[in-house]
Design a protein that fits this description.
alpha/beta; globular; signal; D-Maltodextrin-Binding Protein, domain 2; about 300 residues; ABC transporter substrate-binding protein; eight-stranded mixed sheet; 11 helices; 2 domains
């Protein structure tokens, strides 16, 4: 199994699978872009049977390229159609969103204002105080970049990213690392994803979450089986497990939102989510990444 999710989180999910089924899972964790590059180079002989944890936009690309196996799982029947492929080629089990991790101690020590919007991050007071994941390796970062383009329009978003670059102290490899670096006090602000922040808050770090007032992009975390996978029957059992009440309830212990009706995630508020277009993101990802690399690599 390949995944882009944090390994500690996935080990808990895998333990649930192995407890409830006769499937033994060999897990390999990579960032989203790293995982996609590996899949793209290995196909049609992908060295995994399935993916559990990946961006929805990559699922759409993989589906278009014929990489995915169709399997209609009965445990997913009550999950709304918007969260799953009609032919069973991919299943969205949770969804997550971009957010800012704010180290409140650093803000106080350095006399910095607490940002409330994406536009606020361009203020020179934050020079060197922002850590952002690299879209070349991180799906969290690509969600951020593609969301800005949907909020502002592409031309303005590129101008924004060039200005933001002046305040970025580091581009990290993973989407969770900015939350950790902000939590440890290495930076005042980390552009990251929701659960990475909540996990550090639960661990007692002096950070808070801010959802910029313009809104944030969100993405389904999806699972799929690769076409002609060697261990298809085992992979089908995993897909079935993810869609059960037990599987979704386990996911809800560490995810802010899951897709099964009646199963509540970890948050008790309504985040300000934009109407994110994952299809547009999938169709334009390669072009956007090529331009990013020319500008910032």
């Amino acid at each position: 199994m390949y995944t882009h999710n944090d390994e500690e989180e996935m080990q808990e999910f895998v333990a649930g699978v192995e407890e409830e089924t006769d499937v033994n899972v060999d897990l390999l964790r990579m960032s989203s872009e790293e995982a996609w590059s590996r899949i793209d180079s290995e196909y049609p002989d992908v060295n995994a049977d399935m993916m559990w944890g990946m961006l929805h936009s990559f699922a759409l690309v993989a589906e278009e390229e014929g990489m995915l196996e169709s399997y209609e799982s009965e445990t997913w029947e009550d999950v709304p159609d918007e969260f799953k492929d009609p032919d069973g080629q991919w299943y969205g089990w949770s969804y997550w969103f971009n957010a800012l991790a704010i180290n409140e101690e650093i803000l106080e020590e350095e006399g910095l204002d607490k940002p409330e919007s994406w536009e606020d991050l361009l203020d020179p007071q934050y020079e060197g105080e922002i850590v952002l994941p690299d879209p070349g390796t991180s799906g969290t970062a690509f969600l951020f970049v593609s969301s800005l383009m949907q909020i502002m329009g592409e031309e303005k978003a590129w101008d924004y990213l060039e200005e933001l670059d002046e305040n970025v102290g580091q581009y990290s490899q993973s989407g969770s690392q900015p939350a950790q670096l902000a939590a440890q006090g290495e930076y005042a602000i980390g552009i990251t994803w929701d659960q990475a922040i909540f996990d550090r808050m639960d661990e007692g770090y002096p950070i808070d979450i801010v959802i910029p007032e313009e809104g944030v992009g969100y993405d389904l975390d999806v699972a799929w089986i690769f076409k002609d996978a060697e261990n298809q029957e085992a992979a089908k059992k995993v897909i079935d497990y993810i869609g059960t009440d037990e599987g979704m309830e386990l996911a809800a212990e560490s995810r802010s939102m899951v897709t099964k009706p009646g199963v509540e995630g970890t948050i008790d508020f309504e985040p300000n989510l934009i109407d994110y277009d994952a299809v547009w993101a999938a169709e334009n990802r390669e072009r956007i990444m090529q331009k990013w690399q020319k500008k910032f690599d």
